Amino acid sequence: MDDHLSKAEIRKDAIQDAVQAAAGTVGQVTSIITGAVRDVAGVLGGFATEIFEIRDAARKAAEDHEEQGEQ
């Protein structure tokens, strides 16, 4: 028995392999981008928390300064 592949089947296999490779690559890139976005969001959230803490500390310092000025 001769297992001869037709040109059409060879093309179909090549296209299938290319599509599978592209899908795998897109999946990997998507994972990288998702991780990067998650990391950036975490860093920005931490920065915002620090800004709120600095603002609260400055407000408290100003109140303490006003109280000392009244005495």
What does this protein structure show overall?
- The chain has a domain at 31-71.
- The longest helix has 64 residues, at 7-70.
- The mean pLDDT is 94.
- By secondary structure, it is mainly α.
- The chain has one helix and no strands.
- The relative contact order is 0.05.
- The N and C termini lie far apart (106 Å).
Write the topology of this structure.
Layout: H1 7-70
Could you provide a short overview of the structure?
This protein is mainly alpha-helical and 71 residues long. It has one helix at 7-70. The chain has a domain at 31-71.
Amino-to-carboxy terminus distance: 106 Å
Shape, per Cα inertia axes: rod-shaped
Q: Mean of residue pLDDT?
A: 94
- Count of β-strands: 0
Order of helices and strands: H
**Helicity level:** over 70%
As a percent range, the share of strand residues is under 5%
Secondary-structure content class: mainly alpha
Q: What is the count of DSSP helices, taking H or I runs of 4+ residues?
A: 1
